[in-house]
Amino acid sequence: MQARYLVLKNGSTYEGVGFGSKKVVHGELVFSTGMTGYQESMTDASYDGQMLVFTYPLIGNYGVNRDDMESLHPSVTAIIVNEIARLVGNWRSNMTLTQYAELEDLPGISQVDTRALTQELRDEGSMEAVIVDDLKPETIQAAFDQPLASTSAQSASTNSVYQAPNTGLRVALIDFGLKDSILRSLAQRNLNVTVFPSTASAEEILASHPDGILLSNGPGDPKDLDYVLPTIRILEEQLPVLGICLGHQLFALANGANTYKMKFGHRGFNHAIQENGKPATYFTSQNHGYAVDADSIEATELEITQTEINDGTVEGVRLKNRPAFSVQYHPDASPGPHDAEYVFDDFVAAMQDNQKAGI
Q: Which of this chain's residues are annotated to bind L-glutamine (predicted)?
């Protein structure tokens, strides 16, 4: 077993045992509090370019299968675990997590004190880190001199238009780093989906005669995608809009609100949210490092619909005068609780009402 080292930008060093790819990596280090769902997390494009710490102590015990991927290949640049399972106990498994990491050239490091590491990231915030084979100063410096792994929604987006056909209402989905589980949730509602690149114009999208617009999740800073804001403003004047995760942040920016980078973000499947003004609460799946600034909402036509119970983060907004709304969490879950699946039903209802009104 090869010793490898995780070195943080602040100089902290964690020794562990390498598995998977032996390449040196440089990325933003973040953590997930999910007890399960390591496979979906690794392939979620919202983690594009990030090194992912799993806080649950045993990872890999149910292996890897073909059906639970959120994209074809891993989006993370490395995974850090306390213990990687030696045995797999799941009839659906096609391979072990170690075998998957080797197949996908994904660096991993185990036997790391992930409890201490997570506490450090909570105290100091997400930060750059590298995985290296030795602690020579020149080795560490050379690793940090490598370009920081990309966290671009434009690179995570599809490059071409494609369809997920069905028999129901037509949805134009703008892809900023789409999770496949969103497509599955739409298919369960018989929605006829056309997926567009993040650079598609409003004219191109409207030419597909959609009944509604969905803004997908994705990685990175929403302010790097200012080119899409005019498109959102045009589309929301004509059709119902639903934004998810990064799509929520872009929807807020397009309507005059502001966003900010969080200290360590929300990444996990146990985030409790509350409907504003109502007793209803839900547990949600989340993965984001940026959030909508609540104080910036007041001067806009938006209103806050949901907040995170623990830290008050804005979890949902809607336009006061249009059937357009967004949520910060993943109503598709995958993994995580399915409390918020109703969001897709609300979107369908908005499209149906819009059709009836002849708008």
A: 46, 218, 220, 246, 249, 287, 289-290
Q: How far is CA 207 from CA 126, 176, 195, 210, 283, in A?
A: 42, 20, 13, 8, 38
Q: What is the largest CA-CA distance in the chain?
A: 68
The tokens describing 118, both together, are 């997570």
Question: Is the predicted pLDDT of residue 151 greater than 80, yes or no?
Answer: no
Considering the chain, what percentage of its residues have pLDDT values greater than 70? Answer: 100
Local confidence band at 149 (pLDDT 50, 70, 90 cut-offs): confident
The answer to whether 330 is a known catalytic residue is yes
Instruction: Look at residue 359 and tell me whether its pLDDT is greater than 70.
Output: no
Paired with 163 in beta bridges are 194
**Where is the binding site for L-glutamine, in residues?**
46, 218, 220, 246, 249, 287, 289-290
Instruction: Pull the structure tokens for residue 6.
Output: 């995780």
| Contact in structure between 123 and 1 (CB atoms under 8 Å) | no
Threshold 0.70, pTM exceeds: yes
Question: Which residues lie below 8 Å from residue 189, measured CB to CB, with a gap of 6+?
Answer: 168, 344, 345, 348
Distance set, CA 233 to CA 92, 227, 230, 336 (Å): 44, 11, 5, 32
Residue 47's CB is within 10 A of a number of other CB atoms, namely 28
Quote the tokens at residue 79.
């995974």
Among candidate residues 44, 175, 180, 245, the one labeled active-site is 245
What distance in Å separates the CA atoms of residue 66 and residue 180, rounded to the nearest whole number? 12
Which residues fall within 8 angstroms of residue 178, CB to CB, at 6 or more apart? 45, 71, 157, 158, 195, 216, 217, 218
**Rounded-to-integer distance, Cα 115 and Cα 31, Å:** 10
